[in-house]
Amino acid sequence: MPPSGDLPALLAVSFRAVMDRVHTHLAAEGFGDVRPAHGFVFQYLSFHPHATAVELGEHLGITKQAAVQLIDELDRRGYVERHPHPTDRRSRAIGLTARGRACIERVVAHWQDIERRWAELIGEERVQRLRGDLATLTDDTAGGRPVPLRPLW
Amino acid sequence: MPPSGDLPALLAVSFRAVMDRVHTHLAAEGFGDVRPAHGFVFQYLSFHPHATAVELGEHLGITKQAAVQLIDELDRRGYVERHPHPTDRRSRAIGLTARGRACIERVVAHWQDIERRWAELIGEERVQRLRGDLATLTDDTAGGRPVPLRPLW
DNA sequence: ACCATCTAGTCAAGTAGGTTGTCTATATGC
DNA sequence: GCATATAGACAACCTACTTGACTAGATGGT
Asked: Which pLDDT score is estimated for A4?
């Protein structure tokens, strides 16, 4: 049996379906002004508390200028704030505000809800395998290069 | 064990890794002027030979106007051509040219190469299960609504 | 200590890939 | 046969990104 070659489309629609669902719920909770990129920013910041714009840009797969614009926007909307960087006076350390923390808390909760729902449908071991396989295969496909988050379209 | 909540990122990077790889190979084969959206257009056209702009827009998750622009671009570059629609004189049936068929042939070949490589890594049954699970979970997450291909970012 | 080089962020302009709104011609259903 | 719906065209606009040039501060070699 030849491979059917529909995996790219499956990856695309699964991502889209998850993001749509999360966004719907967030909007109902008062976070209607965030898009997927913002969620990934929050997540990154919660694991890297003193991240800089350059760092974020690399993680997301956008230029540092675009990253700065993103941060500006989140700053204006009260999700993040900039502090002087502890060791490098050129840099500005980006931190989540209370509102930012509230939002990422909801984002992660929704991600986990979906994951739990999936575990109900196909079983927890299979979700674990899905996760593990995706990580393995992505890593191999990328050939060791870091893979940016932003989908090219 | 709580769900770890990294699945959205995994879906994003797996899609990105696959698309990057395919694009690299296509560029080396003389198809450097196509992006992921074009590949999905070609694929759709090869299964729906007389598709229209509206139809394509719905499939991709963009407006009909954006779909027309996309088709214009592919037309100018010689990948598709427009024919009078057999039954509806408002419509224009979009068809692949020889170059378009050559391109989608390569696209699908690369998709299948990746799938075969994945089968070497984790076994064919597990790739099949990955595919099936993704389809099931996407369907459930979307709640029956059709899911557009284009990733929101 | 000095100087060449590198790096973080800024400023400004440009572009890609969409969007919404409006219009015409054709199709469809009662 | 007429009201309504649909396909595509045209135009204006917008958002999220890009490239390029620049400044202030960091870094490393001699």
From this structure: 79
Both tokens of residue B38?
């074009």
CATH number at residue B137: 1.10.10.10
| Touching A: B residues 110-149, CB under 8 Å | 111-112, 114-119, 121-122, 126-127, 129-131, 133-138, 140-142, 147-149
Burial readout B118-130 (b: 16 or more C-beta within 10 A, e: otherwise):
beeebeeebbebb
Q: Residue A21, CB, less than 7 Å from strand C?
A: no
Q: Classify residue B23: in a domain, yes or no.
A: yes
Q: Is residue B1 part of a domain?
A: no
Span A100-130, pLDDT tens digits: 999 999 999 999 999 999 999 999 999 999 9
- Asked if A47 CB < 7 A from strand C, the reply is no
The gap from C-alpha A68 to its chain's centroid, in whole angstroms, comes to 17
**Domain presence at residue B72:** yes
| Structural domain count of chain A | 1
User: Which residues is B94 bridged to in the sheet?
Assistant: B82
Look up the domain containing B33 and give its range: 7-142
The pLDDT tens digits for B69-92 are 999 999 999 999 999 999 999 999
